[in-house]
Design brief:
This protein is of the alpha+beta class and 428 residues long. Among the domains are: 166 residues, Alpha-Beta Complex (Sulfite Oxidase, Chain A, domain 2), CATH 3.90.420.10; 122 residues, Immunoglobulin-like, CATH 2.60.40.650. The protein has eight helices and 24 strands. It has a five-stranded mixed sheet with strand order 5-4-13-8-9. Strand 14 and strand 15 form a beta hairpin. The chain starts with a helix and ends with a strand. The structure holds the ligand Nc1nc2c(c(=O)[nH]1)N[C@H]1C(S)=C(S)[C@@H](COP(=O)(O)O)O[C@H]1N2 and molybdenum atom. Molybdenum atom binds next to loops.
Length: 428
């Protein structure tokens, strides 16, 4: 303890111990309560309640903590995990979108997608290597990168496989977060990748940058050089603190608005090349066979999407009356311009309020007050982005993409409210 803190504590103590023993304090407390009862009897119930002392006001609270944790009363707000038992460390965990409000995802609840677990990296032993079509092959330690000028960028990261149960024949019954929570939104801070590419002298023939992580999967992908020289970020910080191990500590790529697989975590290697590497995650995965028989490949940008997070399945409307409708919309193409809400299964739509500031490639919170009349009804939301793209209905998405899809599902989501106030996932 510092001297000044000690002095502070001592004077506090002498002030209160002068005459106040615990017994005397107890006497005073009881005395006040007994004497106060007569006065309180004449008061309205709310005033009476306001004058009563809640238990946590009767003794000092908990001490300081070095790193804060959520209230124990919020212990149900967690990432739900789906691990692949066949491949060690392969799987995912969802952000519980249905339990959160606003637009930023707390770091401990950022969704996770790992192909081979979370490497435990000592930053002192980690380097980023740049090689291939550069004038100079260079490597950078984490401490080196921390000395470069930094920028901050808020954006969502969404896995291209998010919401993929929407392709199922029958609607999956699960909380909104477990259906659509492979998406999270953070403020990322780090060094613009363009600065480092310039430092190495990128060759004009370089068309692709092949990025590889330092996990046991050595996961790699190919990034078009335009995006790499554009807003790609070498992120070191996430919502103000250093990255969490599960989100790429000590260094990850962040490619705003593009599907999550490109935001390579635990970034170790960037190779400049004329061709993509044709990695597993850009051939066998994150591609889809279209009705024409051709496959869609390198579809990087996340199209506009939205989901109502409150009320949503697993939640319950106690009785007819007013309820806030609240949800999230996002688009990899820029700003969300409009979110409409329907409470009659898409027959009529009303514009929701958008929480400001509305930022490009970020979660955008929409809200609408709604009065439930106690009848069964279907709630939907529909996002429009700055390009004029409107989130499609499920039949429209299936007509365009066919039934072989697994990735990039962004159709309108429908929640049915039953007369008993329960909610379920339906296709409308
Ligand atoms: N090195 C490495 N980078 C990776 C992955 C991985 O398994 N290894 N998963 C990718 C996928 S598929 C996604 S969707 C995002 C998930 O980022 P997050 O776990 O921080 O949410 O990281 C990407 N980067
Ligand atoms: Mo992903």
């Amino acid at each position: 303890m510092h001297a000044s803190e000690e002095a502070q504590t001592e004077s506090d103590a002498s002030r209160s111990t002068d005459q106040e023993t615990p017994a005397r304090r107890e006497f005073l407390r009881r005395g006040i309560t007994a004497g106060g009862a007569a006065v309180l009897a004449g008061l309205a119930p709310e005033s009476r309640a306001a004058a009563a002392t809640p238990q946590w006001m009767t003794r000092p609270g908990q001490p300081f903590s070095n790193y804060g944790l959520p209230s124990p009363h919020e212990k149900a707000v967690i990432r739900l995990i789906a691990a692949n038992s066949a491949v060690s460390g392969n799987g995912l965990s969802w952000t519980p979108l249905h339990d959160l409000e606003g637009t930023l995802t707390p770091n401990g609840l950022h969704f996770e997608r790992h192909h081979n677990g979370v490497p435990q990296i000592d930053p002192a032993g980690h380097r980023l290597y740049l090689h291939g079509l550069f004038e100079r092959s260079l490597s950078f330690g984490v401490d080196d990168l921390l000395r470069y000028p930094m920028v901050s960028q808020q954006c969502f990261i969404e896995c291209g496989g998010n919401s993929n149960s929407g392709w199922n024949e029958e609607p999956l019954q699960a909380p909104a977060g477990s259906l659509h929570g492979l998406a999270s939104c953070s403020e990322w801070t780090g060094v613009p990748l363009s600065v480092i590419l310039e430092e190495c002298g990128l060759h004009p023939d370089a068309q692709w940058l092949i990025a590889e992580g330092a996990d046991a999967a050595a996961m790699n992908v190919s990034i078009p050089i335009g995006k790499a020289r554009g807003d790609a970020l070498l992120a070191l910080y996430q919502n103000g603190e250093r990255l969490r191990p599960e989100n790429g500590y000590p260094l990850r790529l962040v490619l705003p608005g593009w599907e999550g697989v490109l935001s390579v975590k635990w970034l170790r290697r960037l190779q400049a090349a004329t061709e993509p590497v044709m990695a597993r995650n850009e051939t066998a995965r994150y591609t889809e066979l279209l009705p024409s028989g051709k496959a869609r490949q390198f579809t990087f940008v996340i199209e506009a999407k939205s989901v109502i997070t409150r009320p949503s399945p697993g939640q319950h409307l106690a009785a007819p009356g007013w309820y806030p409708i609240s949800g999230l919309a996002w688009s990899g193409r820029g700003v969300i311009k409009r979110v409409e809400v329907s409470t009659d299964g898409g027959k009529s739509w009303i514009d929701a309020n958008l929480q400001t500031p509305v930022l490009p490639r970020c979660f955008t919170r929409f809200r609408l007050p709604w009065r439930w009349n106690g009848e069964s009804c279907i709630l939907q939301s529909r996002a429009t982005d700055e390009t004029g793209y409107v989130q499609p209905t499920r039949p429209a998405l299936i007509a365009e993409r066919g039934r072989h899809g697994y990735f990039h599902y962004n159709a309108i989501v429908s929640w049915e409210v039953s007369e008993d106030g329960s909610l379920s996932h339906v296709y409308a």
